[in-house]
Amino acid sequence: MNPLSRRRFLQTTSLLAASASLTASADEAPAVRVLVWDEQQPAQKQAYPDFLGNAIAAWLKAQPGIEVRSVRLDDPEQGLADADLAWANVLVWWGHVRQTEITPETARKKIIEPILAGRLSLIALHSAHWSTPFMEAMNERTRHDARRRYPDGKEPVKFEFVPPAGRIPPAADSLVTPAYYALKPGGEVRLVRVDLPNCCFPDYRPDGAASKVHVLLPAHPIARGLSETFQIQHTEMYNEPFHVPAPDEVVLRETWARGETFRSGCVWSLGRGKVFYFRPGHETFSVYLQREPLQIVENAARWLAACQPEADAGVKM
Question: What's the mean pLDDT when you consider all of the chain?
Fold first, then answer.
C-alpha cells in the first residue's frame, strides 16, 4: 500500500470509528428534551400549514433520542409554563411581530436564570434577534464582558449600562453596540458607560432572494452532516453589522448575490449555559421545510444539551 493510499485508509477508518462511537453514544445518552416556542403569527400559514414551530417540532420528533413539546404565545403563561421549562434542556424560539409581549422580567426569571445555571440552552431563530429572551441574554453577556474588560483596580469600577431607545434599526454608519466609553480619573478606569446591544442590523430585504450558507467551522457539532456550502432558495436578507457581543464561535456565514453578508450561526457562552442564534428564515418562506436548516436546529439542540453541566437522564423538576 503506497503512503497516499495508506493515509486515506487511516482517515476513512478513523472517521468510521468516530461515526460508530457517536451513534453508540446517541443510543446510550438520555433523550434531548426540546421545547419549541412559536409566536404563531397568521402569516406563517402562507408557507407552513400547521405553523412554523410545529414544522420544526415535527422534524425533531422524527429523530431518534429527542423528545419535543410545542407551545405558543397564546397558551397559558404565554407558553412558558414552569413545568415545561423545568423539563426542557433546550428552548427553540421563534418570534416576530409580538416580541414586546414577553417582558424582560419574565425572560430573566424563566429563561436567563436557568441558562446561567446550566439547566437550559436557547436557540433563537431569525427574527428572534429582537425577542426579549435573546435581547436579555445579550445584555447579560455584555455585562459579563464589560466587567472582564474593565476589572476593578484600587477601587471598584462603576458601570452605567444604557439600553437602546427601543426596537429601532441602527443606521449603517452608527456606532456598533455594545459600545464602551471608559473614564480614567487619575490614570485608572473608574467609570464605564456601556451602550447595551441593539440586537439588530442596518439593512434587510424581504424579497426572498436565495442565500448561500458557508460552513466556517466544519468540525463543529452544529455543522455535522452539512456540505461546505449550501443554498437556501428563498429567505429574507439581513446585512452586517449585527449589533451583538462578539460571539465565542461563528459556525456559519451567509452571503447574497448583491454582496450582503451576515454571521448566521453564532454561539455565546452565558454563565454555565449557551445561546445559539441561527439567522435564516421569515415566516412566509419555507426555510424550515428544507433539510439543512432543520438539521442545524437538530444538531444545535443535541450539542447544547450535551454541553449542560447538569444534564441527566431524568426530568428536571
Answer: 91
